[in-house]
Amino acid sequence: MSDIQNIVNVSRSFESILLEKEERSRKTAWRVAAAGLVLAAMAIAAIIILLPLKTSDTELWSVDKQTGRYEYMTRVKERDIAAEKALAHSLAAHYVRLREGYNYFSLQRDYDDVQLFNSDSVNRDYLDGFNGDQAPDVIFNKAEYVVYIAIISNVHAPATGPDNLATLRIKRTIRRVADNSVKTDVWNIRLTYRYVPHRQLTDSQREVNPLGFIVTSYQRDKELGGNDAETSPAPLWLNGVMPGMGRSDTARQRV
Fold first, then answer.
1. What's the pTM?
2. Residue 10: its pLDDT value, please?
């Protein structure tokens, strides 16, 4: 009887060992599975965290078929661009349009407005340009011609402090009013500017130049090599009233 009991005890002991091994294997499998899940979750979390750091620098530019102007297509909030930089581009383009454009009926107003953006040295050169036979109203025979300005490019860079440099490429469209004929040419403009917000101005002058955008140097060079063109009649868009074509009965007063 004792032998039988020993056999039973051994069998039970062997069965217990097998059950213990199976339980240990099951626990090990669950531990491995749990560790795998944790590692997978950590990998996914790492990918999610790193995704914003991976960017593709894709830029979209557009070219106007009529004017040749090329521009970066974006919204201001999509670019790391300061408000001052955006304003500088706008003010430089506005100044060049005022200075290089021509309309006899808004000449006095444009003449006065340009001077609100000029430093003393730039203003002396500007006023000298209105004396003698090279004055715009002499060249264009008062109201015989109208000159429109299209900005092709407008690039800014730091210059000798506190100035910044703006390089603009523009197309002039000169329309003869009598027969609607048109001549175009291309110019490169280089100007330096700074902000002088505390410059003393009247309220009406401050409305024209609210931030004290001051041009400290100005240079213009005509492009050579087939940029001039002449057509007749003028394109339809030139027949309407363009920006800057104010009507006034007063002619420019030289000061």
1. 0.63
2. 57
